[in-house]
Amino acid sequence: MAESKNPLVEMRSISKRYGGVQALQDVDLDIFLGEVHALVGDNAAGKSTLVKTLAGAVLKDAGTITFDGRPVEIKEPRDAKALGIETVYQDLALADNLNVPANVFLGREATRRGPLAWLLDNRRMEDEARKLLSKLKINIPNIRQQVRFMSGGQRQSIALARCVCFNARVVILDEPTAALGVEETRKVYTLIRDMREHGLAVLLISHNLNHVFENCDRITVLKTGRLVGSHRVEETSQDEILRMIVSGVAENSAQKPPDHKWAAAE
Question: 194 — phi, psi (to 5°)?
């Protein structure tokens, strides 16, 4: 699916301070449907703080967020989820003692009326989970098995499927393949590309530029809490992005898209 012309999410002049540390300073970010957007930079660049601001896990000090053309306030995770913004952190937040359907529907379980009270509708959750896994081409032979016995790649896939199940429009991924082997990493990125083809917007934090250039459409570089610049993958190179990460200075200004605010780190 081709990416949309107008951004679904527009973050403007986002700032956040922790005591004496300026974690973010006037950062802009656009996120488009049908696009995998990588957020890169050294440690303490502000990547996690920026995505947590969008996810509702961190309250920004200043700046605005526009979603689908209208201003929004995201003060807590439920605000983000109500907009269709889902986040998968490195720890995945899976319940190891539960099976796949129970994890997919965790916190939003399907129920049915029983003789005396509402009961979990396990059959419905299992049927819906099977359909979802099939749609996303996720192969898990036994979805009734507890997830504690599953591989890292399978667990990551379950966490991603949980996002899609509840009509997410934006999926935020924090280092989704950090602890995975080569083959499991390949499968996770295949799933991420499939999510893009289904029209989702994917915002991805990664330190691996090889993975970024192989799987992403756009790259935004942060340095010490400031926006360095953004480039489409086909309009830049790994060497250029690496220089931006190290120096904090945007290069190749002729390739910057129109109507986008650019800032070089001081």
Answer: -65, -40
Residue 220 pairs with which residues in a beta bridge?
39, 230
Confidence of residue 3 (pLDDT cuts 50, 70, 90): low
Categorize the per-residue pLDDT at 259 as very low, low, confident or very high, splitting at 50, 70 and 90.
Answer: very low
How far is it, in rounded angstroms, from Cα 42 to Cα 29? 18
Say whether 112 sits in a helix, a strand or coil. strand
Percent of the chain with pLDDT over 70: 92
Decide if 96 contacts 148 (C-beta within 8 A). Answer: yes
Please check whether residue 215 is in contact with residue 194, taking contact to mean a CB–CB distance below 8 angstroms.
Answer: no
The set of residues, in sequence order, having a beta carbon less than 8 Å from that of 232 and lying 6+ positions away, is: 217, 218, 219, 255, 257
Per DSSP, 57 falls in state: S
CB neighbour list of residue 236: distance below 8 Å, 6 or more residues apart: 219, 252, 255
At 42, is the secondary structure helix, strand, or coil? coil
Sequence-distant (≥ 6) Cβ neighbours of residue 247 within 8 angstroms: 223
Continuous segment of H or E residues that includes residue 88:
strand 85-88
Instruction: Tell me the per-residue pLDDT of 148-196, one tens digit each, with 9 for 90 and over.
Output: 999 888 888 888 888 877 778 999 998 888 878 888 888 889 989 988 9
Compute the Cα dihedral for 76, 82, 85, 91 and give only its sign.
positive
User: 3-state DSSP helix/strand/coil percent for the chain, to nearest 5?
Assistant: 35, 25, 40
Strand, helix or coil at 249? coil
For residues 250 and 257, is the Cβ–Cβ distance under 8 A? no
